[in-house]
Amino acid sequence: MNLSDLAPEYIRAISPYQPGKPISELAREMGMDERTIIKLASNENPLGTSPLALEAMTRALNEVALYPDGSGFELKAALSKRYGVTSSQIVLGNGSNDVLELAARVFLKPGASAVYSQHAFAVYPLVTQAVGASGIAVRAIKYGHDLDAMLDAVTPETRIVFIANPNNPTGTLLAASALLRFLERVSSDVLVVLDEAYNEYLPGTIKADSIAWLKRFPNLLITRTFSKAYGMAGIRVGFGLAHPDVSGLMNRVRQPFNVNSVALAGAVAALEDVEFVKRTYALNQAGMLQITTGLRQLGIEYIPSYGNFLSFRLSQHDVRAINESLLRQGVIVRPIGIYEMPEHLRVTVGLESENQKFLKSLEIAIGESA
Ligand SMILES: *Cc1c(COP(=O)(O)O)cnc(C)c1O
């Protein structure tokens, strides 16, 4: 008997998520000193973690013998205050990935479908397939979501539309007005999951007031994370905001203790750390300018990005060879062939010195491949 035959066909068909290569793995593979390697592959915060969060988490470590507060009372209270929603509208997750999965488990099943964009975040097809539903990938325009086409792709069986804004790995942003028009037109029996993992990196002037839309659209779920701007990717905490009927169902299917106590304490403190988010934002703006300027000098085409990362195109070069040269030089970026972007690499905006090393190494890599 082949054990994998016991799993449903839709589970066997899943291709695993490919994370960014850890520094320790590259060091092992190449016999390099970890300290000479920089990782710009997973959109992590180059400033590390919010110091307030770090302090709170260190304190919380003393109590890990106890189960976490399964209701996340304090974090929900802090989020309610910050975002002007009720606690009953909040779903906490073990990263926002968990929230995306909960949405799929609640609203999808075999026979149902989810709509998402080509080049969109890889987790959407994953969570869709994992519950036996079918995914409908809609062709992108200029690497961004084509909302009109996504609306047309919705069928009577569609229960979720996933929208990443900004999107990863393309960094594209939809205008607030376009999103609003989409929400007004899409059938109210379709849950619109608006993934705003990079919200904190947007200038205030172009940020959609998406949370205010929750009052008008009971079929809207907004997801946010502490992984990116708050620098807490390793501790896993994110959240969803929705109509209480939606969050209520999601809270029923989640694990009772899905967010650990250290993460809960850290997230409460992180929300207070306005200063850290400000510094993160400013560093990202400067780093984005540094990288785009450098790429332009190298004659490399890139997709303008609204996140803390950027995808650039190496159409004249062998992407694999360039990536391998970067790795040999101790620079980890992300190949995005699985996003149907085989000619692109994605780089996370790092510290000034890291961006510098990346640009220099890329120049060398291109020289080698010419
Ligand atoms: C990084 C990212 C997330 C956040 O994942 P977590 O599970 O919260 O760490 C969600 N959506 C997108 C588009 C992302 O790039």
From TrEMBL:
- Which reaction(s) does the protein catalyse, per the Swiss-Prot or TrEMBL entry? L-histidinol phosphate + 2-oxoglutarate = 3-(imidazol-4-yl)-2-oxopropyl phosphate + L-glutamate
Q: Which cofactor does it need?
A: pyridoxal 5'-phosphate
Query: Which residues, if any, are the signal sequence?
Result: none
Tell me a GO biological process for this protein.
Answer: L-histidine biosynthetic process
- Keywords (A to Z) from UniProt: Amino-acid biosynthesis, Aminotransferase, Histidine biosynthesis, Pyridoxal phosphate, Transferase
Tell me the pathway: Amino-acid biosynthesis; L-histidine biosynthesis; L-histidine from 5-phospho-alpha-D-ribose 1-diphosphate: step 7/9
Domain spans labelled Aminotransferase class I/classII large:
36-360
Q: Which CDD domains match?
A: AAT_like (cd00609)
Residues annotated as carrying N6-(pyridoxal phosphate)lysine in the record are K228
Gene3D superfamilies on file = Aspartate Aminotransferase, domain 1, Type I PLP-dependent aspartate aminotransferase-like (Major domain)
Q: Does the keyword Amino-acid biosynthesis apply?
A: yes
Molecular function terms from GO: histidinol-phosphate transaminase activity; pyridoxal phosphate binding
Q: What is its EC number?
A: 2.6.1.9
Q: How does it assemble?
A: Homodimer.
Give the similarity note. Answer: Belongs to the class-II pyridoxal-phosphate-dependent aminotransferase family. Histidinol-phosphate aminotransferase subfamily.
Under what name is this protein listed?
A: Histidinol-phosphate aminotransferase
Q: Which organism is it from?
A: Nitrosospira lacus
